[in-house]
Write a structure and sequence with these properties.
Blueprint lengths: L1 E5 L5 E5 L4 H6 L2 H6 L2 H17 L3 H24 L3 E2 L2 H9 L7
Antiparallel strand pairs: 1-2, 1-3
C-alpha cells in the first residue's frame, strides 16, 4: 500500500507502507537514492559492526530487519520535516499502521 504525503511547499511524495523489498535486495543504497544519508550511514555501520563478529551472517539479519522497518522510519522522518497526509485515505492508512496517532 502506498501513501501520498504533501509538503506546504507543494512537494508531493508517494511512499510505500510496510515491508520494503527494495531495502531487502539493495540495502543501504535505498536510503542513499532517497537522499536519507543519516539512515544509509546507520545501516552501513550496523551491518559492519554486527557482520564482523558473525562472519557476515549478522549483516544479512540486520538487512532483513531493516526491510521490515525502513519504510516506517522514512515516513516518520518525512512527517517530522513537515509533510502531511495528502488526503483522508492516507491519514487513515498511517493511523492503521500506527505511524501517526489517531485523532
Amino acid at each position: 500500500m502506498k501513501v501520498l504525503l504533501r509538503h506546504e511547499s507543494g512537494v508531493t511524495k508517494e511512499v510505500k507502507c510496510g515491508f520494503s523489498w527494495t531495502t531487502f535486495f539493495f540495502g543501504f543504497i535505498v536510503p542513499l537514492v532517497r537522499g536519507d544519508i543519516k539512515w544509509a550511514l546507520i545501516m552501513v555501520v550496523i551491518s559492519i559492526a554486527v557482520g564482523s563478529f558473525t562472519f557476515g551472517i549478522g549483516a544479512v539479519v540486520s538487512g532483513i530487519i531493516f526491510s521490515f522497518v525502513y519504510n516506517k522510519i522514512y515516513i516518520k522522518d518525512l512527517l517530522q520535516k513537515g509533510f502531511k497526509p495528502a488526503d483522508e485515505n492516507a491519514k487513515k492508512l498511517l493511523e492503521e499502521k500506527s505511524i501517526v496517532a489517531a485523532q
